[in-house]
Give the backbone structure.
Amino acid sequence: YIGASYYTYWSEDFWWAVGFKTVTLNPSYNSVHLGAYDRMFHTHNEPQSEWCNMQGQLMIGGNLAVQESTSSRKLYYWEIYHLMGDPSLKIKIIDVCPDFVNFINQTVTTDTDIVSCGDINVQNVTVTNNAKLTLDAAGEVNIINDFEVELGSEFEIK
């Protein structure tokens, strides 16, 4: 659970969630101004270096968006937001399981799980920076070509 120990404010909460931009009912995505939700769901091909896969990272990701803002409450947000629990717990988003996943032209630099209820095709992928790539497919995992796991990194098929 991520929560605040005192009052929070509309504009800063908006920026925390969706990034620093004009507060509006239907905000537009902006890859230069990421909020906690962009970093957690990463549905717009954000670089992995911007992802928040763990609870502690998510809180920091939201606070970074407030830090980027024009708010006079930047320090206040760093002080009042707290994580009740283990910051290293991975965030698992359970959604409709895709029948087919193409994992193509990727450089994996952080621990990454790819899940499919069908097959996974892997092509032109490098696992580096002591990262771990886990492929979890109900069907087949097809490594087509140019797949590299650098020394110190890991690769697992479930």
Q: What stands out?
A: Helices lie at 10-18, 36-41, 55-68, 74-80. The longest strand covers residues 100-108. The mean pLDDT is 91. Strands lie at 2-4, 81-83, 100-108, 112-116, 119-127, 132-137, 141-149, 154-157.
